[in-house]
Design goal:
It is an enzyme of class 5 (isomerase). With 559 residues, the chain is an alpha/beta fold. Helix content is 36%, strand content 19%. It has four domains: 87 residues, no CATH class; 65 residues, no CATH class; 171 residues, Rossmann fold (3-Layer(aba) Sandwich); 191 residues, Rossmann fold, CATH 3.40.50. It contains 21 helices and 23 strands. The chain has a seven-stranded parallel β-sheet, with helices on both faces. A hairpin with a 4-residue loop joins strand 3 and strand 4. Helix 15 packs antiparallel against helix 16. It is globular and about 75 Å long.
Length: 559
């Protein structure tokens, strides 16, 4: 392409950044085409910036997007010619994926390069060499079984991701089938995208399947995909998730939608330690230790049974000690489930190496268009700081500035207006700071849930909210993850964790489950105008833009 095409939205630059003009009539289709291989970096109102990295290209290749398709998408929507260096970099990254293979022979594991020169280069990389055994041939090395995961991590960091074809242990057999009618008597069938995602992960039971990540919106049924993968694998399964509430939600879903019985499914949390053929545990219990330098005694759970599958729910939150154990668990099938691959600690490459590459992803807007999740209207309300707080804010340290802005007392009046605007819709008021959310709950006369709320009380409140006896509920961070609140239609976010895109994904997901009637959800974010909170909100909104949601800016008087 040599000509200038003003109607196109993309400007592809030699540093592999991509600028996208939001006002272009072709913006939405261009955004959807580049999403599989480009990461959104920032999203001000008029021009969004994406970045293409080797990892984003490898994930696209692993999910079945060939390099020609990546280059063609850039060419089709670029305003100016795509720099040759960008095309060359994409093709180079894509061709690196799979040039190294880990396989198994009767003697053990081997790492094989597609040519001796590459094997020689890899053998001399300081970060890789410690994980290699003897040289078997000009193009292959023996790999100690215990180093399989750490070798893959090192190779990714060296820019040479290995395709792991060494296969998996079968695990303890456990026949599992999905029901056609749930235990509660409702007809049940997998949606096409759920079946396709499970099929992409399992790959017919071949060594090309069995490890990887499925990316789906909150409310799109990631738990169902996990259960279908369990059914296809047909062996004992360890499910790891984020909270006791999430553990019980998984157990409830498994018993409702599969042929497993109560004596086959166990809870492993701070409150119960039942190890059964399917065991659901929290990350917190696995990483608990009595003191800072003590051992993580509950990590023994990974070796308690001959697990055939390990499911990492909300894999973007996987804690460091579980990463370390997972490096030694490469002979077991591993499934990651998440709404976003973005990690706040930047360890996306470790998810790629240790859990596996992205196997399937369905854009949020696609599922919204098909009616599987609710349509969402996103609004940021910018609330001025009251005069009494402007001087304390001006002289405060940076972290204190954020808290002062987050706890702006004038947000309460805006919350009241929003509640008046949606009088008959189940609403969540969500905040970061416990004192703030408890104060709002007192002022509004509504129930509140925080991390210190007893589990029994939580269960009662969740049930009352789901069944409509509680119309408005105030929640702290405890409700960010894997909580079954299917009838929430409105979310009012009063404070959040700095610029966390993960949190934005989870909070929006709380209201996206399909609804009767108009299938409409409303997501409000209240930020203090001209403060650090407003700046961090821009980073959080990256997630909304990434998924194709527009957000409007409003003044309190507009509500």
């Amino acid at each position: 392409m040599s000509e200038y095409r003003p109607e196109n939205p993309l400007i592809v630059q030699g540093d592999q950044s991509v600028l996208a003009e939001v006002g272009s009539p072709r913006f939405a289709e261009a955004r959807d085409r580049i999403a599989p291989f480009a990461e959104l970096v920032k999203s001000p109102e008029h021009v969004h910036t994406y970045r293409i990295t080797p990892l984003s290209v490898w994930n696209a290749c692993a999910a079945g997007t060939p390099p020609d398709e990546i280059v063609d998408a850039l060419r089709e929507y670029a305003k100016y010619p795509v720099p040759p260096v960008v095309e060359a970099s994409i093709r180079d990254a894509a061709t690196r994926y799979g040039r190294l293979r880990i396989s198994r022979d009767p003697e053990g594991l081997t790492l094989t390069a597609d040519e001796p020169e590459l094997a020689e280069e890899i053998g001399r990389v300081r970060g890789v060499a410690p994980y290699l055994g003897e040289r078997l041939s000009p193009d292959s090395f023996r790999v100690p079984s215990a180093e399989r995961g750490r070798l893959k991590q090192a190779l990714v960091k060296a820019g040479w991701p290995a395709e792991d074809l060494a296969g998996y242990t079968a695990g303890e057999p456990l026949p599992i089938s999905m029901r056609e009618v749930t235990r509660e008597g409702e007809p049940f069938t997998l949606r096409t995208y759920q079946s396709d995602a499970a099929g992409a992960f399992h790959a017919g039971g071949s060594e090309r399947g069995g490890s990887g990540v499925v990316v789906l919106p909150c409310g799109a049924g990631k738990t169902v995909v996990g259960m279908e993968c369990m059914s296809r694998v047909g062996s004992s399964t360890l499910v790891l998730t984020t909270s006791v509430t999430a553990v019980r939600q998984w157990i409830r879903e498994v018993l409702d939608k599969t042929t497993l019985t109560e004596d086959q499914v166990g809870e492993y949390t701070g409150q119960a330690k039942d190890v059964r053929p399917v065991t659901v545990a929290t990350y917190q219990v696995l990483t608990h230790r009595d003191k800072k330098d003590a051992a993580f005694k509950h990590l023994e759970l990974f070796d308690t049974r001959d697990w055939g599958l390990i499911v990492y729910d909300e894999v973007h939150l996987l804690p460091a000690p579980v990463f370390q154990v997972t490096a030694a668990l490469q002979a077991r099938r591993r499934l990651g489930l998440t709404a976003t691959l973005v990690r706040e600690d930047g360890r996306e490459d470790d998810v790629f190496a240790l859990i596996g590459p992205k196997k399937a992803e369905v854009p949020w807007k696609v599922l919204e268009g098909q009616g599987w999740i609710a349509t969402a209207e996103c609004t940021e309300v910018r609330v001025p700081l009251p005069k009494s707080l402007r001087m304390p804010y001006a002289v405060a340290e940076q972290r204190d500035k954020f808290r002062i802005a987050s706890e702006n007392p004038d947000k309460l009046a805006v919350i009241r207006r929003i509640l008046e605007r949606h009088p008959d819709e189940p609403t969540l008021v969500i905040g970061l700071y416990v004192e703030q959310i408890e104060g709002i709950a007192r002022d509004l006369g509504i129930p509140v849930l925080t991390g210190t709320t007893a589990q029994r009380k939580r269960d009662v409140i969740y049930k009352d909210f789901r069944e409509g006896r509680i119309p408005v509920l105030a929640v702290s961070k405890v409700a960010n993850f894997a909580v079954d609140l299917p009838d929430a239609a409105v979310a009012i976010q009063v404070s959040g964790t700095f610029g966390s895109r993960q949190e934005e994904a989870q909070r929006l997901g709380r209201i996206l489950r399909p609804k009767k009637g108009a299938n409409q959800a409303h997501f409000y974010t209240l930020v203090s105008r001209d403060t650090t909170e407003q700046e961090f909100a821009l980073k959080r909104q990256l997630f909304l833009c990434e998924q194709g949601y527009a957000y409007r800016i409003a003044d309190p008087k507009d509500i």
